[in-house]
Amino acid sequence: MKGDDIIQSIKGRTPKVMGSENFKEYAILVPLIEVNDETHILFEVRSFNMRRQPGEICFPGGRIDNTDKDAESAAMRETSEELGISQNLISDIHPLDYLVSPFGTIIYPFAGKLNAGLKDLNPNGAEVEEVFTSPLKDLKEKEPELYDIKFSVEPEENFPYKSIPGGENYDWQARNLKEHFYYYEDKVIWGLTAKILHHFIEIISNKKM
Questions:
Q1: Mind spelling out the 3-state secondary structure of the chain?
Q2: For residues 96 and 107, is the Cβ–Cβ distance under 8 A?
Q3: Cα(147)–Cα(197) distance, rounded to whole angstroms?
Q4: Which residues pair with 110 in a beta bridge?
Q5: Backbone φ and ψ of 8, nearest 5°
Q6: Distance from C-alpha of 75 to C-alpha of 96, rounded to nearest angstrom
Q7: How far apart are CA 190 and CA 187, in angstroms?
């Protein structure tokens, strides 16, 4: 190929995360809801009958389908289905930073308002064990506990060490993952949910722009 042809083939591309076509993509919503004239964040407890992560605390959301217009539409659809409310009651949705996890997923978080009371929710029992809320001001005052998870590199048995500098002594620079933990009453909020919560709180506290 000539240089001009090569440039033409990449002209106008919209960049994305390399290899993202092999990732599973999810969209979630950090839902703000008014409780007794105070802004709360709503959380779900996943049904104990769920195959993945039963009983864990999460935000409404799920996998982006081919029928979804975009990630925001997926977040609205999933929130509507899981909480049993009309999408018309979800408003003021704005994106947070998306998250590429080390486990083959890309998560697109949004924050938005639920224009409904707790009594108006009808959670889908197949997916949601219960919902609860926490005052936003209480969460803003908390600093999450942080714990390191260390990853190790284990190349497969026939890895061609002779082809790389350093051979079997190559410095792989294995990384650590920081897990966030928030505690509210008898609830433990951790993992990606806590990481996204912390990111959201940093933004609204002007600590991260």
A1: CCHHHHHHHHCCCCCCCCCHHHCEEEEEEEEEEEECCEEEEEEEEECCCCCCCCCCEECCEEECCCCCCCHHHHHHHHHHHHHCCCHHHEEEEEECCCEECCCCEEEEEEEEEECCCHHHCCCCCCCEEEEEEEEHHHHHHCCCEEEEEECCCCCCCCCCHHHCCCHHHCCCCCCEEEEEEEEECCEEEEHHHHHHHHHHHHHHCCCCC
A2: no
A3: 16
A4: 29, 95
A5: -60, -35
A6: 12
A7: 10
Confidence of residue 1 (pLDDT cuts 50, 70, 90): confident
CA-CA-CA-CA torsion sign (112, 47, 82, 186): negative
Q: How confident is the model at residue 207 (pLDDT cuts 50, 70, 90)?
A: low
Confidence of residue 134 (pLDDT cuts 50, 70, 90): very high
Length of the chain: 209
Q: In whole angstroms, what is the distance from residue 8 CA to residue 168 CA?
A: 42
For residues 150 and 63, what is the distance between their CA atoms, to the nearest angstrom? Answer: 27
**pTM higher than the cut 0.70:** yes
